[in-house]
Amino acid sequence: MKLLVLGGTKNLGRHVVEAALRDGHEVTLFNRGTTNPGLFPEVRRLTGDRADPSALAVGEWDCVIDMSGFLVRDVRLSAELLRDRVGRYTYMSSIAVYADRKTPGQDEFGELLPWPVDALDNEFTMDLYGSSKVRCESLLTATFGDRTAAVRSGFVVGPYNPDFGNWGTALATGNRMESAAPPSQPVQYVDARDLADFLLLELSGPINVVGPTRTMGELAAAWQSVVPEPAPMDWAPAVDRFHLADEGLFRLDNSRALAAGLRLRADEESARDYVAWIQNGNIAPDPPH
Fold first, then answer.
1. Which terminal CB of the chain, N or C, has fewer other CB atoms within 10 Å?
2. What is the pLDDT of residues 70-103, one digit of tens each?
3. What is the sign of the dihedral through the CA atoms of 277, 34, 242 and 233?
4. How many other C-beta atoms lie within 10 A of the C-beta of residue 220?
């Protein structure tokens, strides 16, 4: 497959490119060339900014995976340029698109957030994050029809990624894991490597790509099990790293993703690999918010 990745040199994007190269795909990267520019020297690179994607004006690809589409304006520009020159457009979206954050078991067709009447499509704030993703999904569907997939994930765990990085670091260094959310709080996440593999599949429509719902207590026990004699859990830290108040967002229905080919590794494997990554001298990145 000829694959175009928008982004691809940090966090989840690195896993996508690694998985694509492992599977023998021909990869082209489009990004600014400023983040980890030495990665993937064997890959063709197109350098440019999302605000000026003219480097994408020539070329054809079987699929584009958009890892860096935050501003509505930027996604619109890439969609207009690529409309007739890509087979599929897979957009990395978010579970933050849902308006109902209380009801458990929602599938992909729950109510979505509206676009504020005074919002600008060339500005990004965390308050607009979910609404921006909704608007981007909509314009891509209008442009590519059923050739569009909107992959909605929440926490993404694993090397290169910030989510649960404080847990991995704590376990790797013999310190206490922390959670301001109580042990009964539901949570869902997906391993970055499982998500990367999924993004390479032939997908269509919106898809909740999350793991099964656990409680924070269950998840903490699974992570602590990968090291001998872990320090006691701290359930009352000074800083809340998880922001898990919206319980409905962490009890989503993932059956559509499982039917489409999502394969999920065990929590213990994700934890063990994250701890090993830290012990090998890596540092968990800071969360984006």
1. C
2. 999 999 999 999 999 999 999 999 999 999 999 9
3. positive
4. 22
